[in-house]
Specification:
This protein is mainly beta. It contains 3 helices and 28 strands.
């Protein structure tokens, strides 16, 4: 009789099969459970309650099977359970507490360490100036331009090279710079004028919650601040320390101001008094007029009138009076953002002297000029919002 040979490597004892297989199977299962529990409790970023997992962004993800738990990308699990595997009730209690304490009530982040040099990065350029709105000059000749859409004041060299950015502002509109370099910014979002030092650190907030639309700012030589609050139809006046001094906007002869769009301070020699006097010029846009006050708030004179754009005799009149600047001769430069033209007027009579500027998208042309600035060096800087740029233009002969 031919003997049966057992295939090499396939010797099987059926009596041992059950015992060995069962013990091996139990060992494998136990190891799998241990690995599974250790994986679940590996990190401290996510909690599990019963069959539900809280992911690292706080969203609850249902888990039905261990395979789903292990194979779900982007999930991280709670801390390792020390020494033993928890029961289901312990698991639920522990993970429910973790979810409550870490997801529903996340801990406050620690305070960053004090860095005395941190202010050096506050003026780093991070954006592009896409909607130049208001312009001011600093004592060092640098040019400051607001952009309410970006939420920044952009800082340019005298040659209009971008040099810095004061960001994180709430809809900045008007801007002025004091002789000590302090930057005053009218923020519509906070209804205030914020004061920052030259390094960008916030020093103070003037009129917080009271200034509805700080559209334009001007400082006199004593540091008195004039704020064109266009929406409130007044010009608010503050001392150099931010104390309210009153407001301009009503005159018994001229009536209420309507949407003052700009303010400018100018100085001229008064031949009668024999001294230099300061005056505040206000663009009363709603009435297409320029109101002139002394620096104590007394109305001195009013000139200008409304005209449809480019119809009839527009000289000395305005379709949309937007901004003002005073030159070294004491003349008023008045920009009209509808006619895309700047008129030069006699400061005492309002009589038309000349004009410059023309509509277009080319260099030196105007497209919705929202502000003009005559610098100490004689440059005319324009916030050319329609062309999305700040530029120097010629004022003509």
């Amino acid at each position: 009789m031919r003997s049966r040979r057992k295939p090499i490597g396939c010797s099987v004892d059926r009596r041992r099969l059950g015992g060995v297989s069962l013990s091996v199977l139990l060992a494998v299962v136990a190891a799998g459970v241990a690995i599974f529990v250790l994986v679940i409790y590996r990190d401290n970023k996510v909690g599990v309650e019963g069959f539900t997992m809280a992911s690292s962004d706080g969203q609850l993800v249902p888990i039905k099977k261990p395979a789903e738990l292990l194979n779900t990308p982007g999930l991280e699990f709670v801390q390792a359970w020390p020494g033993r595997c928890p029961g289901r009730s312990e698991l639920r209690r522990t993970c429910a507490a973790w979810v409550r304490d870490n997801v529903e009530n996340p801990p406050e982040p620690p305070e960053p360490p004090y860095d005395p040099n941190a202010h050096q990065d506050k003026l780093g350029v991070r954006h592009a100036n896409t909607y130049p709105t208001r312009v001011a000059e600093g004592p060092d000749g640098r040019v400051y331009v607001t952009d309410p859409r970006v939420g920044s004041v952009f800082i340019y060299s005298a040659s209009l090279q971008l040099a810095g950015e004061l960001g994180g502002l709430a809809s900045p509109l008007g801007v002025a710079v004091a002789q000590d370099g302090a930057i005053y910014v009218g923020c519509r979002g906070t209804k205030s004028v914020e004061v920052h030092n030259p390094q960008g650190d916030k020093l103070a907030s003037i009129g917080a919650g009271q200034i509805e639309m700080p559209n334009d700012l001007a400082l006199d030589r004593d540091g008195k601040l004039f704020v064109a609050d266009s929406k409130a139809n007044v010009v608010r006046v503050y001392s150099s320390t931010g104390v309210p001094l009153g407001q301009l906007g009503f005159d018994s002869n001229e009536g209420d101001m309507h949407f003052p769009s700009a303010v400018a301070v100018g100085y001229r020699f008064d031949a009668v008094l024999g001294i230099e006097v300061g005056e505040l010029y206000v663009a009363d846009q709603g009435h297409s007029r320029i109101r002139v006050y002394d620096l104590s708030g007394n109305l001195l004179r009013v000139f200008g009138a409304y005209t449809p754009a480019f119809f009839g005799n527009w000289r000395g009149k305005f379709a949309r009076l937007q901004s003002l600047a005073i030159d070294a001769l004491g003349q008023v430069h008045a920009a009209d953002c509808y006619m895309n033209k700047v008129q030069v007027l006699n400061a005492l009579t309002g009589a038309y002297v000349r004009d410059y500027g023309a509509f277009g998208t080319g260099q030196g042309q105007l497209n919705v000029p929202l502000d003009i600035l005559l610098t100490s060096s004689g440059q005319m800087i324009v916030a050319n919002s329609g062309n999305r740029r700040v530029e120097s233009i010629s004022t003509g002969p």
